[in-house]
Structures
1.
Amino acid sequence: EDQVTQSPEALRLQEGESSSLNCSYTVSGLRGLFWYRQDPGKGPEFLFTLYSAGEEKEKERLKATLTKKESFLHITAPKPEDSATYLCAVRYYKLSFGAGTTVTVRA
Amino acid sequence: DGGITQSPKYLFRKEGQNVTLSCEQNLNHDAMYWYRQDPGQGLRLIYYSQIVNDFQKGDIAEGYSVSREKKESFPLTVTSAQKNPTAFYLCASSNRDPGYEQYFGPGTRLTVT
């Protein structure tokens, strides 16, 4: 069964148009939620770890938040260089990855 | 610079041949992992190792084999028993157990025809 679901599958934004990506999970006993960025043909790059509901982390135009059932990655005023696939993973006894959201930012 | 290297970047093989993918890390991490990535799917865990000379099967270990003779190295062999070997393979490492943030290598794209 799916443990981690990311939505939408794809997101097309105009430069400067803020938006949010969703990561919902069904595992119990969450021991951490991770966000990664992946460029085409490359390995994922670690962005954030969140451990408890209410926690927030920020990095440049990205902000990750966590509730008891889902996490959001907010992209504020995106630029074309923010175009990538964003992966979410949850930890119980291992990392379980979602399929990702592919973000395209047009200039 | 600390990091994870994978080689080669692209690999082409004929059906029926075994092939070994290299993964080396100089981050002094104890744990190492192999994932497979297919279009539209999340990363799937093939094997992982938390200490030298020990490794465990992940979710899709059939048709693959690994070894962990050195802390820095975790090679993956894709055997002829793997029914659908064409994929993007990613190696990762982390401190201690699989629950800590994992850092990934650049990946190897394997094409089997």
2.
Amino acid sequence: SQQGEEDPQALSIQEGENATMNCSYKTSINNLQWYRQNSGRGLVHLILIRSNEREKHSGRLRVTLDTSKKSSSLLITASRAADTASYFCATDANAGGTSYGKLTFGQGTILTVHP
Amino acid sequence: SAVISQKPSRDICQRGTSLTIQCQVDSQVTMMFWYRQQPGQSLTLIATANQGSEATYESGFVIDKFPISRPNLTFSTLTVSNMSPEDSSIYLCSVGFKAGGADTQYFGPGTRLTVL
């Protein structure tokens, strides 16, 4: 089974700086999703990018996907202390181009934003 | 959007006992899933909860250890049976469906289980 790997494992920045997290995976996917988790609580869905898309934006978030390299990046611009959390990528390899929640998660990046 | 609740939110249990976790969704959904997140780790899919039929388990997870019920399209339970300290984890249910043409995933708040 595929397993996402993320780097860095931990990232510490100052408020206002940009944060970039990377994710790699091993098999073909239909889409890749990014989630945020605060202090071991439930996950919050941030953004989904389909395999035929290369870049997607949502507010201060920018996600890229390179299927030839089997990698994705999440950029958070103008970070805030409230962005402090763990960030996970998750891949959906289900057939049919639709996502039904059967996801394979990366190991996550712990982001700390200092005020 | 979907609102998912889980009960209990946390529990401390003794070795050898069982705990049933409930997941309630505020709308009907086709797909419901159960994930485990061990301390300091990422999420691992346990099984897909199928309405009206037996759950589909991922490699490494078996029905005897993690029996799942899905009596309708808004509710599911996961039981962690004959618990050991290694079962200490956060257990999360999730649902996946299309909303407004976009794929949307929602996760419950999780149940934090500690086994002594």
